[in-house]
Amino acid sequence: MRIKEKFENLKKKGEKALIPFIMAGDPDLETTERLVLEMEKRGADIIELGLPFSDPLADGPVIQQSSQRSLEKGTRTPHVFELVKRLREKTDIPLVILTYYNPVFSYGQEIFIKEAAQAGVDGLVMPDLPLEERDELEETARETGLDLICFLAPTSSRDRINKTAQRARGFIYCVSLTGVTGVREEFSPSAENLIKDIRKHTSLPLALGFGISTPRQAGKAARYADGVIVGSALMKIIDKYGENGDLLVQEVGEFVASLKKAVTGQFSDYRL
Amino acid sequence: MYPDNKGHFMEFGGRFVPEVLMPALEELTREYYKVKEEEDFQKELTEYLQDYGGRPTPLYFARGFSEYIGGPRIYLKREDLTHTGAHKINNTLGQALLALRMGKKRVIAETGAGQHGVATATAAAKFGLECHVYMGEEDMERQALNVFRMKLLGAEVIPVSAGSKTLKDATNEAIRDWVTNVENTYYIIGSVVGPHPYPEMVRDFQSIIGVETREQVLEKEGRFPDSLVACVGGGSNALGLFYPFLEDSQVEMIGVEAAGFGLDTGLHAATLSQGRAGVLHGSMSYLLQDEFGQISPVHSISAGLDYPGVGPEHAFLQKTRRASYGSVTDEEALEAFKLISRREGIIPALESAHALAYIIKERERFKEQSLVVVNLSGRGDKDVNAVSQVLEVEK
Questions:
Q1: What's CA A238's distance to the chain center, in Å?
Q2: Looking at the domain assignment, is residue A242 inside a domain?
Q3: Are B357 and B328 in contact (CB under 8 A)?
Q4: Is residue A55 part of a domain?
Q5: pLDDT tens, position by position, for chain A (272 residues)?
């Protein structure tokens, strides 16, 4: 519900959602908690929290290394749920967990969904669980009110877009390019057409991710998407300042503020 | 009939990949099912397998080894005598032909021991395809000879330094390449793993091993073997031998996994013996993983078996009890490696040595049988360096 309300409120104000991604437990869980609260303060609308997986095959080197650091610190599923519980005492910002299917399956998918929802997680994103394999999970998610986020990519056929639009909840995660996550010089020109195509099939909010790493790129994306997801660029800051907690929180806050500034403002009509 | 139309072998198999790849897998499945039924394609492939690949490979009566075991007549299916020295060429010729058919000019592959990399580079050279092979840095070191062979064949070998620097990480990296270059790239997976249709397709291309074995064993012995034995990493040589015998319920099938330093040390690659169900590299199967679904580090002296997953059809065959799975340690495999070299004049690949070692380890049981076929999936030249280092240390 939090995700839906957030997008509705933003729409009323004529704003777009800024959705930063950070890996839980990198550099440590306490810092992750501080970072979430700081990002909210500086303009983040929804937070994606990574639950690390040992073999993140949709991720480029930056998020791979971040996952590795978090796992080496011992971060596992229960720690991330506890982190969410602590955050829920302090904030109502929509929280989405991004992970791969195996940690969810291994935990017991029903238990995972229920515990996540109880902890206060609003959505779950798994890049390696396509529509065809998520029937069971979808049912459990619906019962608990947790949104199972769907992906669409530049390669998705009309038929797949249609099927996805019918089953998607929360928002649709639109992949801006064929590739893995990571910082890129140029913003993919195919993204705009993808969003326009998907828009014909659904009224759900469309968030664009992969390869968006600067305020300029985020601003460009926000011209036609309802939300902008930024991950690797943040994780690079975390890698750089990881040892110095206060400076890290400050730097991440500044960066999020600059993204938010780029994402909001004059773009009142998202069908532009 | 397995797999079903979504690529499932009961709860195993399926397609667990990023959305970007789903349309490519749908297209590949359509194209593969077309050529599977197409006489011209199959005829062309058979010609290449014979005249270029060196098939059929002999089914050889291993007198020295049989006498050593002291019971059954043991035959070796000599996949080591194919072009490039392992069964991998059966699959890469098939998939390279399919890539050509689909108009793809660039192929990629992952490799552990380097045999699949060499077989892919070979097929790519033959058919004029651009070839990139991902290989873990640790494997590049222990299989240096194969790295050089791939380069000679014109392939680019891309070192993978992430994670354990072995086959698992090379596969991650190959998938990432495919996600990025899916429009113009064909991914030649080397084993019966990955998302549908790969487990089925690789099994079909490797089934030539079992098809030939059936004919040859009937000709030589007038009956089917009591058991088939093959090593299992991802499991393509085993499935290639087993699959044509699946309906012959009197034929026992045994897959042999790598027990590394020993099952109780936690440093092994015995996925079916010690793993739990889970998803890695695009399909549901058994995995070596921790309590929370993080993939465990694995170990085997054999780079080709050093993998925390296994093909979904093996998980299925184990679950339905059509096949059984055992394991042998590095040490047992090394003993078999030396023994077969001396008794038969054949230096087997360390992978294949695992299958042979299992018969030595379980010799009391095999003594009850009268006819056994072992898949000698590859030759051991590539391993001589690594083995000499281990034996040197032992001295």
A1: 17
A2: yes
A3: yes
A4: yes
A5: 899 999 999 999 999 999 999 999 999 999 999 999 999 999 999 999 999 999 999 999 999 999 999 999 999 999 999 999 999 999 999 999 999 999 999 999 999 999 999 999 999 999 999 999 999 999 999 999 999 999 999 999 999 999 999 999 999 999 999 999 998 888 888 899 999 999 999 999 999 999 999 999 999 999 999 999 999 999 999 999 988 999 999 999 999 999 999 998 644 433 33
Inside any domain, residue A78? yes
User: Which domain covers residue A80, as residue numbers?
Assistant: 2-263
Cβ pair B59, B213 in contact under 8 A: yes
Looking at the domain assignment, is residue A9 inside a domain?
yes
SS3 A146: coil
> Which residue out of A38, A40, A59, A115 is catalytically annotated?
A59
Please tell me whether residue B166 adopts helix, strand or coil conformation.
coil
Contact assignment for A64 to B183 by CB distance below 8 Å: no
Please give the tally of structural domains in chain A. Answer: 1
Q: How far apart are the first and last CA of chain B?
A: 52
Between chains, do A60 and B22 touch, taking CB under 8 Å as contact? no
Look up the CATH number of the domain holding residue A153: 3.20.20.70
Residues of A in Cβ contact (< 8 Å) with B20: 153-155, 175, 178-179
B110 is catalytic: yes
Is the ipTM higher than 0.90? The answer is yes
Please give the model's pTM, rounded to 2 decimal places: 0.96
Residues of A in contact with B179 (CB under 8 A): 57-58, 178-180
